[in-house]
């Protein structure tokens, strides 16, 4: 064909690279900044399709909706693979965790189980009592601290961990106490840039740069999950109010579910439970935390949100999850929070199987792809007053987060789009409504809304650097059930 000339084989632009480390120095030099910011600044300088060499790993970074659209529309299958990272390989059962799995039959099968059996609307609704009970417990604790400062951030994270754990492995047992801290470490480790991943064939780095720690964490995790699994299999016919994820997954163990699905091994089930925990906890709690922070920062918005919830629920006297769908303003707040504080800022990395052309540039096979959803979410070319928190911007807008508006991709897009959107939103919407319905909130230590420090923590998930220190004032009594 006509485009094999050397000019069409041009790589996308990027800064000058150094021997051996390529562009890694750009990250080392700004080690106090999160990668999403460094990559956004590079895009401003070199353009929306950026080429970087991270150690030995060729990488492109996309920061425009047109190029994101081109990739997700025309190269979706080609980019449906994930790079093999140390954490996925060592900790997550040799990349059989869904989020890290290569694009394969195994991925297809386990994604089907996840979307159809675990994260369907019906299943998500079936966990309503768990969410209600755990958040009611939280509200009771908050009410018991009325008038004194509390660390709301910590409590929101703990409550979310409890909910996801109960939904995954059932009623609280002693194992929860072991499970949560190990899973927390796993979530931290799997979100970060790890230097060892940029020299995949370097045995020295692998040996000394993380593999031992990953193995140690893996053994701990495996021991706990194995115990949970065998306990459950031993007590299979115990009385149960709700099926949890483990019950569902065990139906696929050893092909009990029949020919429509491949069977899951014990390791597969353990990997799936890890996936869910990893994908669901921090993303949901950090969104809730940012939403509360933004409302505390702008008391007018807080009042508007509280008015909506209180007008809506005052007849019943409590927040009922089955009708949260009608909370228009709460929905706008969540949309805006996901725009300005995109938790999975760079999505999860992908890698292409075959060489291809994107935006007129040559992309060699096995190039790692980051889509900077966080940067697009605050790009002034797409958003008016892009850095301001304005929920009303979504009022008369058809923009949604289901992967078809490429400047707004908090859940990603295409084949690897987050399968947990419905579940994730349910875990945010209802708790937010409940916190706003029952309590008024005052910043602790005499901090004024203007003085609130909204700095982001330098981590892969965009948490706030400061915790929410607030004083609760009970405004609506808690249900006594
Ligand atoms: C506010 C909440 C959440 C946000 C912002 C979020 C965000 C994301 C993002 C950005 C991706 C990468 C998509 C891509 O590569 O295009 C992803 C993937 C994924 N998420 Fe979520 N997520 C959330 C909640 C959840 C929940 C509740 C679950 C499960 C229980 C979940 C499970 C997963 C899984 C398994 C993947 C990998 C999918 C695959 O590789 O095929 N997420 N999520």
TrEMBL record:
Keywords, in A-Z order: Heme, Iron, Membrane, Metal-binding, Monooxygenase, Oxidoreductase, Signal, Transmembrane, Transmembrane helix
Topology of this chain in the membrane: Single-pass membrane protein
Pfam family, one: p450
Compartment list: Membrane
PROSITE patterns: CYTOCHROME_P450
InterPro entries: Cyt_P450, Cyt_P450_CS, Cyt_P450_E_grp-I, Cyt_P450_sf
GO CC terms: membrane
Binding site for heme: 418
Molecular-function annotations in GO: heme binding; iron ion binding; monooxygenase activity; oxidoreductase activity, acting on paired donors, with incorporation or reduction of molecular oxygen
Domain of life from the UniProt record: Eukaryota
Key word Cell inner membrane present: no
Cofactor: heme
Keyword Hydrolase set for record: no
Family membership: Belongs to the cytochrome P450 family.
PANTHER family cross-referenced by the UniProt entry: CYTOCHROME P450 71D11-LIKE (PTHR47955:SF8), CYTOCHROME P450 FAMILY 71 PROTEIN (PTHR47955)
Protein's UniProt name: Cytochrome P450 CYP71D490
Source organism per UniProt: Scoparia dulcis (Sweet broom)
